[in-house]
């Protein structure tokens, strides 16, 4: 690696979105006198009678959860997207708006209130993967649904209001901004080179071996060269697949293994239940081949120096571009030693 990248300010290019991130490694030594977050390491019970997501409990809308044993999925009681929204458009000079339809679901990873993905066995995480596959297929089959976004917000620092292990699935009629950018850049590269953008990038990463955190037979966990968040990571399948339904049973288990390894490493990093937002980006469900897509899962954790120091996206990040202090290589090295 060019040592200048470890010592001097520079920009790095995100090949998937076409955007730049400012890296300032010399700032990592600056003293911190800002806000410190409260991180709770309280031991939670396996079942919380006041939790809306625990098995057998009554949710806010009056519905009773079944006494589920592994994964439980239901339509979000406070969905951000509606199936009943009428189709309309506003195009009045510089005022432009379009209707958006969709279906939002909640997926409980486990009936055990005390756990997170980092605490679950790989075989149980594999059940979550299979549930994701099923939801992607079923939701994507709706005529009005052209994209399915699977994600998880973990921890109160990330705005999660319920500590029960769960994620969400939002499906909608158009491509959201981040997906649209990745769709365009992957297609442009594929049309020109007849190969996967992310697949070719992965080959270069494996050869460089500077940001690889963990790998098994089918998946690689790495810190992207263009990472924005201090300990951002990505899980990439070694073979090019457009979406998660294409992987085999063995690959599904190895995907679960990769999730287990990185979430456990996160928890060891600052000795806390590590907060993050994670999400899977994959091909649209618009009926097109989408051969240019190479699906992947990203983790965006906000913690910077310790369990209590958070990375804020403010000031220059809001008005200029994303900026980071710790380099991708330094972050990857720390996580690799914990995985």
Helix content: 25-40%
* Sheet with the most strands, sense and barrel status: 9 strands, antiparallel
Which CATH C-level class is it? Alpha Beta
Q: Tell how many strands the DSSP assignment holds.
A: 16
The CATH superfamily title: HIT-like
Strand share of the residues?
A: 15-25%
Report how far apart the termini are: 22 Å
Q: Which overall shape is indicated by the principal axes computed on the Cα atoms?
A: globular
Series of secondary-structure elements, N-terminal to C-terminal:
HEEEEEEHEEHHEEEHEEEEHEH
What is the architecture at the second tier of CATH? 2-Layer Sandwich
Individual helix count: 7
Biggest sheet: strand arrangement: 3-6-8-7-12-13-11-10-9
Low-confidence stretches: none
Explain this structure:
The protein is α+β, with helices and mostly antiparallel strands. It has one domain (71-336): HIT family, subunit A (2-Layer Sandwich). It contains 7 helices and 16 strands. It has helices spanning 4-7, 122-140, 177-193, 197-208, 249-269, 316-319, 328-336, and strands at residues 10-14, 19-23, 72-75, 89-92, 95-98, 102-108, 147-154, 166-172, 212-215, 219-222, 233-237, 276-281, 296-300, 303-306, 309-310, 323-324. The protein has a 9-stranded antiparallel β-sheet with strand order 3-6-8-7-12-13-11-10-9, sandwiched between helices. Strand 1 (10-14) and strand 2 (19-23) form a beta hairpin. It is globular. The model has no long low-confidence stretch (mean pLDDT 93).
């Amino acid at each position: 690696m060019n040592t200048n990248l470890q010592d001097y300010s520079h920009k790095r290019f995100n090949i998937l979105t076409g955007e730049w991130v400012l890296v300032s490694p010399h700032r990592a030594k600056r003293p911190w006198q800002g806000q410190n977050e409260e991180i709770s390491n309280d031991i939670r019970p396996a079942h919380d009678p006041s939790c809306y997501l625990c098995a057998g409990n009554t949710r806010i809308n009056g519905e009773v959860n079944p006494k589920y044993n592994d994964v439980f999925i239901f339509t979000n009681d406070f969905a951000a997207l509606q199936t009943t929204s009428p189709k309309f458009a506003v195009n009045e000079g510089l005022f432009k708006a379009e209707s958006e339809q969709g279906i939002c679901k909640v997926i409980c990873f486990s009936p055990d209130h005390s756990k997170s993905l980092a605490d679950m066995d790989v075989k149980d995480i594999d059940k979550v993967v299979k549930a994701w596959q099923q939801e992607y297929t079923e939701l994507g089959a709706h005529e009005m649904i052209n994209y399915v976004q699977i994600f998880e917000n973990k921890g109160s620092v990330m705005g999660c209001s319920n500590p029960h292990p769960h994620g969400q699935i939002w499906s909608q009629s158009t491509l959201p901004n981040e997906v649209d950018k990745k769709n365009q850049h992957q297609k442009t590269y594929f049309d020109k080179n007849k190969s996967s953008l992310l697949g070719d990038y992965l080959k270069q990463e494996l050869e460089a071996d500077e940001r690889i955190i963990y790998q098994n037979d089918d998946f690689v966990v790495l810190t992207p060269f263009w990472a924005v968040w201090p300990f951002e990571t990505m899980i990439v399948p070694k073979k090019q697949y457009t979406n998660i339904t294409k992987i085999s049973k063995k690959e599904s288990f190895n995907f679960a293994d990769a999730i287990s390894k990185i979430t456990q490493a996160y928890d060891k990093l600052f000795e806390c239940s590590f907060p993050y937002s994670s999400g899977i980006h994959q091909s649209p469900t618009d009926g097109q081949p989408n051969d240019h897509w190479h699906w992947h899962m990203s983790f965006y954790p906000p913690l910077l120096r310790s369990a209590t120091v958070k990375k804020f996206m403010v000031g220059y990040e809001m008005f200029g571009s994303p900026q980071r202090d710790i380099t991708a290589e330094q972050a990857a090295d720390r996580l690799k030693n914990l995985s």
